[in-house]
């Protein structure tokens, strides 16, 4: 075992404090990564504060990891010491179920192994610890190549926010000339705008805040609809082929479904903590609409996303955070005071 510097929570109310954790020695197919940057995801906040159910402590969050390979297992192929690589939301899966065999590890039928806060079946059931740390050891099959030419700090959020929005856009086969709506302009929403535009779509952003209109257009949005304005929503009826909903707060989907044309689809990414208003099935039936959800992406698709972003020069808009400012950053995330993602500078651990 080797020791790594980290910031960990010891309870739901402790905040994040300096800590030391143990990492396993690299097995034959393992990659040891010296972590340079780790994105801060809102799910980190929910998890360490036990807002999604009781968490196990001590807990080091972080699943948007970018760093350089420091050691390789004896049987690792395709990577070299010094390579810049990434690790996203999962570090293992069963590798045997239909979903895993088809490249959809995120939907592993036996449960994938999250990057933090989950019992690692291949490591004696120890709790996985995430990327707010100086290093991590991960099986080579769950490590991603970070293309050259991209700012590695701004790449980090692509490993969650990027793939979470890329995957449904690819599933919907968004192409040049399609009309895509994006609900919300936060960490997920701003990536959905960038990726949809790169796919050739005309993009409309739905926001409750008129003040975000200029920011949406700066990101590439072709139109902005203030969703709290009935006249603007009425004018948008039957104007879209697809909608990516990134909002995690409770909201009524029916007005947005009315903005879809025949055979349109709305994909839910945000996960509200309480029940949403019921969807009117008549809206679906009368225009043959689809309403679905999506969860990150598989390893191959995540690599495809990184390569696509490199080709189109896409990264996340970020604000860097020192380790001592993590708790403040969490409070700002909860308040919506970030444009658009925080990234931890791991050299400050």
Question: Would you mind describing this structure in some detail?
Answer:
- With 349 residues, this protein is an alpha/beta fold.
- It folds into 2 domains: 2-159 and 317-348, Alpha-Beta Complex (Quinone Oxidoreductase, Chain A, domain 1); 162-293, Rossmann fold, CATH 3.40.50.720.
- Helices cover 24% and strands 28% of the residues.
- The protein has 11 helices and 19 strands.
- Strands 3, 4, 5, 10, 11, 18 and 19 form a 7-stranded mixed beta sheet that branches.
- A hairpin with an 8-residue loop joins strand 1 and strand 2.
- It is globular and about 60 Å long.
Blueprint (SSEs and pairs):
Layout: E1 2-8, E2 17-23, E3 30-40, H1 42-48, E4 65-72, E5 84-87, E6 90-92, H2 98-101, E7 113-114, E8 119-120, E9 126-127, E10 135-139, E11 144-145, H3 152-155, H4 161-171, E12 179-183, H5 187-198, E13 202-207, H6 213-219, E14 223-226, H7 230-235, E15 240-245, H8 254-257, E16 260-268, H9 281-287, E17 290-293, H10 299-312, E18 318-321, H11 326-334, E19 341-345
Parallel strand pairs: 12-13, 12-15, 13-14, 15-16, 16-17, 18-19
Antiparallel strand pairs: 1-2, 3-4, 3-10, 3-19, 4-5, 5-11, 6-7, 8-9
Helix pairs in contact: 4-5, 4-10
